[in-house]
């Protein structure tokens, strides 16, 4: 039924896509450092974090990296760890673009946790489920082999049907494809060791969107970072018999 509707609505979808592209407010990537060290007084081993992906990973929608996902996550994790963090993200990047960028990065930079925020541009470019699965699999394998990642978190593709900047039926159409690609991420996490799928959990109320109605606001980035922080800590500190002993170990 969805396929029939897509065929029927094709002229409208094309017209709306062109209109949105022409009228969209284009926000810059935020200013600020894209790597750093956050020192913590607690005597725990440092966490090496890599954040990679598209405009949401890059922090589009806020003014500074301190308000963006990278800054918020590093600050929250620093309550329990010294954090060495690095951001490799670019507005407009698809999975294939991020894969190429990480392939070209120098070797020898091992990481403990990788946060991947990808999928929206794969949706808008109509990347097929088969290709998305292939490229995401290649990216995961690269991160394990080249970066020796101990934990890879696949952030869920957001429900694009609820993006304020998108009119219907275009929003419905992109939302359907976003759900299909998110299912690919969920299946990859089920079959890959040390890979987690983090479903999109943020309520898309008006204050969660930036001025363009497309990217996250500072509040949305903060809530996203909170969920990531809890997820990472749950893996760093697995349940132990002696709750008084908090030694950083990986639940492998």
UniProtKB/TrEMBL annotation:
The lineage of its organism: Bacteria, Pseudomonadati, Pseudomonadota, Alphaproteobacteria, Rhodobacterales. Keywords: Hydrolase. Gene3D superfamilies: SGNH hydrolase (3.40.50.1110). InterPro entries: Ester_Hydrolysis_Enzymes (IPR051532), SGNH_hydro (IPR013830), SGNH_hydro_sf (IPR036514). It holds the Pfam family Lipase_GDSL_2. Residues 53-223 form the SGNH hydrolase-type esterase domain. The keyword DNA-binding does not apply. SUPFAM superfamilies: SGNH hydrolase. It comes from Phaeobacter italicus. This is GDSL-like Lipase/Acylhydrolase. GO terms for molecular function: phosphatidylcholine lysophospholipase activity.
